[in-house]
Amino acid sequence: MAQQRTVPPVTTRHLRRHARRALTSWRLLAVVAFVAAGALFVTSSIDSKGGDLRSNSVTDLGTLVLGQRRDTDAAQQRVAQLNREVDSLSRAVTGKQVQALQAKAEALQAPAGLDPMSGAGVEVTLTDAPEDVTDKAIAKGHPALDTLVVHQQDLQAVVNALWLGGARGISIMDQRIISTTGIKCAGPTVILHGVPYSPPYVIKAVGDPTALLSALDDSDYIDSYRTVADAYGLGYDVETTRVALKGYTGTLELRYAKPAA
Questions:
Q1: Dihedrals φ, ψ of 174, to 5°?
Q2: pLDDT tens sequence across 12-70
Q3: CA count, 13 A, side-chain hemisphere, 194
Q4: Which one of 8, 93, 125, 182 is most buried, by most CB atoms within 10 A?
């Protein structure tokens, strides 16, 4: 007859010992999980360099525009600071010929748009059609949506008319217009000196208000724009006011295509 193994009774002490072991194991697992999660967060932060790891399709366009504008503004401020340092070092150079060239360069700064300017002038504001007009256009299928937004050629037409009217200085969205300034459309925004802007677009000009208003009224393109604006609610507001323009502080380096070697 086989001898039966005696099973020791389960005591309260045994139960407590097993409970302590289980609790210790769970605590260790929890610590490991928290450490792993922390490592993932740190890795994500390093990879994104403080940015958003989500795709552009799920990121708000307005937030992207504002972020890019802040980055560009910071870069332009740095360029302005470096330009001031270069000017300071240049003035420290002695020599009659150098001083004569510096005097010529300083005399050209104002007409080139590098110096601040203020005086009587006009302020023109262009805006897209209201949202309800756009919604109706989408529902009906007409007019075309690009008819209901402000384009780069609309801004350029206003700027050209103001130059023809004798403007001494012009800015768009407080960005000084110079001879190399380009206005570009990028989706629902307009890019100026590398910075994207959304409507309303504010154009300021220093000059004789009467002559500037007359030049705006004489522009055939602006007349066509105003016809569309009256029909679909686009904004075209003009007022005479005292205008203060900032000097251009960006780079003056010209970039152009070169033939391949």
A1: 65, 15
A2: 555 455 555 554 555 555 555 555 555 555 555 555 455 444 444 434 555 666 666 67
A3: 11
A4: 125
Q: In the structure encoding, which two tokens stand for residue 29, read together?
A: 């697992």
In the chain, domain spans: 14-53, 116-245
> Between vectors from CA 86 to CA 81 and to CA 92, what angle results, nearest 5°?
130
- Residue 164 structure tokens: 């023809």
Query: How far apart, in whole angstroms, are the C-alpha atoms of residue 218 and residue 249?
Result: 32
Q: What DSSP state is assigned to residue 145?
A: G
Residue 117: enclosing H or E segment and its boundaries?
strand 117-127
Q: β-strand 117-127 against 189-192: which pairing, if any?
A: unpaired
CATH class of 116-245: alpha beta
How distant is the alpha carbon of residue 14 from its chain centre? Answer: 69
Question: 182: exposed, middle or buried (C-beta count within 10 Å: 0-12, 13-18, 19+)?
Answer: exposed
Give me the torsion for CA of 165, 167, 170, 176, rounded to 10°. Answer: 140
- Going by C-alpha positions, the residue among 194, 197, 196, 202 that lies closest to residue 249 is 194
Please give the Cα distance from 25 to 29 (Å, whole number). 6
Token digits of residue 104: 């010529």
User: How high is the pLDDT of residue 15?
Assistant: 47
pTM of this structure = 0.63
- Rounded Cα gap, residues 76 and 67, in angstroms: 14
Q: Give the integer Cα–Cα distance in Å for 157 and 216.
A: 9
CB 123 within 8 Å of CB 238:
yes
* Residue pLDDT, tens place only, 143-186: 988 899 999 999 999 999 999 999 999 999 999 999 888 898 88
